[in-house]
Recover the amino acids of this structure.
């Protein structure tokens, strides 16, 4: 997925539009989680220190890789179901690579998915992310926003979370705003223009086959 031109205001506008379609008699929708992003507060003014980095692997691993990925990006789903699983087995689980996953938000649906993935904390994050990517074709094509968020709720429950916990995470507008600011600052700092993209020991690389990625990691290990 390309065109990294997403601004915090664009994401907020999507949420605000969803919010304005609701009447006061309707129960809260997940779209409310983005409402805080519509405030005048700029990205530079948002404290992003509360956002936890999601990592796998040994802290002292010789190779550090940061992945920038979107839950609504088909190429990202393909990467996670194939290449990433091989990298995890051969490099992360063996102590050679420290892997950090950073979300990219092209739309509100990807942000909702992120809120669900992070709802279980670091210990559940990668397992929930696997479920989100595996079910991407189903939940992203569910239809209306309410149907999409219902599918994400199902994924959260499948991961073992209670409905109240999932709903609280989806309705956390402050967290949503902070995540958008965090994403934008990171993406701008690392000059991310497409997903998935990676930063390997400080050098940016694009999506790779497993063979190419393996060669890249092996070279960094030398």
């Amino acid at each position: 997925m390309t065109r990294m031109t997403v601004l915090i205001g664009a994401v907020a506008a999507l949420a605000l539009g969803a919010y304005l379609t609701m009447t006061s008699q309707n129960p809260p929708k997940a779209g409310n989680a983005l409402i805080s992003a519509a405030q005048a507060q700029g990205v530079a003014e948002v404290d992003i220190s509360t956002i936890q980095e999601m990592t796998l692997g040994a802290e002292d691993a010789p190779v550090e890789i940061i992945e920038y990925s979107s839950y609504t990006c088909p190429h990202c789903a393909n990467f996670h179901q194939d290449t990433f699983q091989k990298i995890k087995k051969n490099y992360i689980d063996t102590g050679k690579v420290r892997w950090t996953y950073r979300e990219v938000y092209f739309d509100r649906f990807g942000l909702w998915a992120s809120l669900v993935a992070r709802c279980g904390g670091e210990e559940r994050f990668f397992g929930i992310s696997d479920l989100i990517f595996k079910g991407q074709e189903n939940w992203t094509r569910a239809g209306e926003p309410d149907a999409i968020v219902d599918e994400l709720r199902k994924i959260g429950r499948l991961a073992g979370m209670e409905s109240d916990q999932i709903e609280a995470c989806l309705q956390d507008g402050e967290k949503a705003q902070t995540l958008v600011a965090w994403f934008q600052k990171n993406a701008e700092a690392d000059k991310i223009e497409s997903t998935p993209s990676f930063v390997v020991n400080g050098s940016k690389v694009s999506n790779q086959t497993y063979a190419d990625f393996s060669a890249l990691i092996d070279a960094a290990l030398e």
In short: The chain has a mean pLDDT of 84. The first helix runs from residue 8 to 20.
